[in-house]
Design a protein that fits this description.
Elements: H1 2-17, H2 35-51, H3 53-56, H4 69-95, H5 105-132, H6 142-150, H7 166-171, H8 176-183
Helix pairs in contact: 1-6, 2-4, 2-8, 4-5, 5-6
């Protein structure tokens, strides 16, 4: 059980360092013309900047000595706290990007913020469960970490909520912060 949780934590660290939906399709994006294009690109710069904050925050996956359960719990609780803070920071940033120049954009970004807030809450609760677990129980509380890490699949594509807003989806292809997000291996929807 401990080894599988350690493996899960390592996978989560890699997933957070590179949440991706599989990369590029191999086609070159072609920017659209129009008055709203520049405003949509500027808006998506703000959105991608806020959404990618979780990937930038230092998150150190626990290096575990299976014999030292109290250290495992302390390090896993700290890791859960780092993840909770990272998601909270992204959620707050998304809430503050301002009004969308494109119909439906604000609703999509608010939904993204809710996803980040929800994930932050999951990791906060996991941290609490780990901290409150019996120190003599080798797996006590650690299951909560595994369950929280499993929730990361909700973030495989952080911009999936933009699927109903084609103008903003298209803007991700040229917005500088969205391109940065790709370099962080957090691939925006295209």
């Amino acid at each position: 059980m401990r080894r599988s949780l350690v493996a899960t934590a390592a996978v989560a660290a890699l997933a957070l360092a590179g949440c991706t939906n599989g990369g590029n399709s191999g086609t070159s994006p072609t920017p659209s013309s129009g008055v709203n294009n520049a405003a949509a690109v500027a808006y998506m710069d703000k959105v991608c900047s806020a959404a990618s904050e979780f990937a930038k925050i230092e998150k150190t996956a626990p290096k575990v000595d299976p014999a030292d359960t109290s250290k495992l719990k302390a390090e896993m609780a700290a890791y859960m706290g780092q993840l909770a803070d990272a998601f909270a920071k992204s959620a707050e940033g998304l809430k503050n990007v301002g009004p969308s120049p494109v119909a439906g954009g604000e609703e999509a970004v608010n939904k993204m913020a809710e996803t980040f807030t929800s994930l932050g809450t999951v990791f906060t609760e996991a941290k609490t469960k780990i901290e409150q677990a019996d120190g003599n129980d080798a797996t006590g509380g650690i299951q909560a970490a595994g369950e929280a890490i499993a929730k990361l699949s909700e973030l495989a594509d952080p911009l999936r909520d933009l699927q109903g807003v084609p103008e903003l989806q298209k803007a991700t292809q040229t917005a500088g912060k969205c391109q940065e997000m790709q370099r962080l291996n957090v691939t925006p929807t295209s």
